[in-house]
């Protein structure tokens, strides 16, 4: 592997190596790592010449070297010697570890079928090789159960595709053209920080930013206006906005006639939501709704930013679908600085056959597909035939999966053979039979396609793997060899894989024009080949739906068994909005939102001492009204619980949430809490209305102050 050896100005002994941030974040920053003569990385920075990174990294990845050189990194394969979950392991060699997995899987496949082996992975890295290729090739060849990777934005993706046919957000700098930006159920100050300077600049240019979020987030604090609907009621709010827009004649009939199908169906829905009705559902004043509608309809360009946070409800699919209709009602799709900013994922689509080789004759016919949100249930009886082996990588389900108590119950099964590949001994790794050490992003090759901007990032390894750690793909190759799989596409190294996927994808993707592996290795980051005038999504008026139009009525939705017309339905676990004066019972359950923490990415970084300290303690935000009813003071230990489970948090009595609504930032590592659990002991593994999506934020809990005795005794 040739490393970039351009010297750092003024310090000729340092090499600069170009890379990419691997984490689940739309910004996909372009990195440069400085490496000294001993081969040690001395700093990781954001590239100054990248149009979105612009020379800085977030609070998390700024401290990447603490992660890379963390003394607690796993450096060798480990085999369990104590009881499951006891955390007792002994060091073994890679040869022994691979041989053991091969032997166990051969036996399991012969006895029960390979479909009783389940790979479980998600967001550890979003790289093409260490993510998508690792997720596909080997498992397809083995004939393992397929994993439905639905924990994050599955419902929203489906909603956007059904409505406009493509995830084609504009690049972040497009907000500079906007006059109004609605940030709806999204918290970029924490989850997509490189959007913020563009938003600030837009505000300086006179644009208004309105945040619609039940929680007063960091993003909401810097907005021109913050609107706090009751959780899970946004579709009613959007429909009422449309009601005001239509009844006041502020919609765009010509645009609608030319570019949409099913307007009459949507109109019928809209007319059911006068603002007075939506006010009762959302807890907002009807005047607030009307004013928002008028401002949105009369300010152009108006951009609507929606991300995946808002989709994690049982009605998340229909919510996002309803929101995606708003820009059409006011004719804002196709306008520079207008439309919908969801994700840029579909500007470039990898050729899937070259990524996963699933249709190769060597691969058995795919068997079943299991939804990752149901992991606990699947492991404890739902899967038939049962799962006899679980291979976890790029994921930490004991911390991050819903209904995590059930996941632990499943992992304790004596007849389950669990392998966990990670950089650290996570809560999940503690339940493994074998733990394998993983490389960090500075130690392996990868290629990254962002979901928040329009360039491709190559990641060149900067340092040698720490200890005996191996990359995901290298472990797949070793397992393939151990099982005697001969296919070239299971032996190829990372660069060969990248070359194959680039070449195959370039046949259909004009975005890749002029993009070669050699150039990527040299330049690190290369903008997509999209002419500037084509960077405004849907400027040509062509939507990627079957009709080529915005589909208010969707035959595809109908075929999937959904309501073909967007609308609001109450959440499955629901307590209707009530004004504070009617909230008088201290045992009344309240909806709890457990969204992204500022210093973690899901559970990643949750073990990094400086970031853990900066994030503070696992906190429950509760309104003074509700706190007083329950005798809760700030700083006090409280217990949140429901029929799924419980956990304890420290109360923060605050107006950041309205009466009747709770919030906590996630995801904390269970093993660092005295109770060995986190908020996911209460979240539900129920699936969303669309596409098997997750429903973390449809979660009713009771809150009680802990007495001193409870604090000592626990449960
Ligand atoms: N710092 C940090 N960055 C991250 C992550 C992280 O954990 N930490 N996670 C990464 C991942 S995996 C993802 S998917 C993205 C997520 O990125 P975002 O979607 O921005 O993040 P979330 O915090 O999940 O949700 C955004 C907001 O939705 C609000 N929300 C929840 N329910 C409702 C509702 O019913 N109505 C309305 N209007 N708002 C609602 C929450 O209060 C929250 O503030 O961020 C990525 N980036
Ligand atoms: N309560 C609550 N729970 C949530 C959410 C929430 O908002 N609230 N958000 C949900 C969302 S949006 C998501 S996307 C999921 C994410 O859930 P997961 O995908 O499970 O994400 P993490 O918990 O961050 O775990 C990722 C693990 O991958 C490891 N890793 C990193 N790089 C590599 C690598 O190269 N190789 C290997 N083998 N491992 C690696 C990291 O060390 C880390 O332990 O969490 C969900 N969980
Ligand atoms: S987590 Fe996001 S903001 Fe932070 S370095 Fe990675 S891509 Fe950039
Ligand atoms: Mo996510």
From TrEMBL:
InterPro entries referenced in this protein's UniProt entry, alphabetically: Asp_de-COase-like_dom_sf, MoPterin_dinucl-bd_dom, Mopterin_OxRdtase, Mopterin_OxRdtase_4Fe-4S_dom, Mopterin_OxRdtase_prok_CS, Prok_Mopterin_Oxidored, YoaE_C
Entry similarity comment: Belongs to the prokaryotic molybdopterin-containing oxidoreductase family.
Protein species of origin: Tengunoibacter tsumagoiensis
Keyword Metal-binding attributed: yes
GO molecular function, one term: oxidoreductase activity
PANTHER family xref list: OXIDOREDUCTASE YYAE-RELATED, TRIMETHYLAMINE-N-OXIDE REDUCTASE
Pfam families, A to Z: Molybdop_Fe4S4, Molybdopterin, Molydop_binding
Protein name: Molybdopterin oxidoreductase
Chain ranges of the 4Fe-4S Mo/W bis-MGD-type domain: 14-72
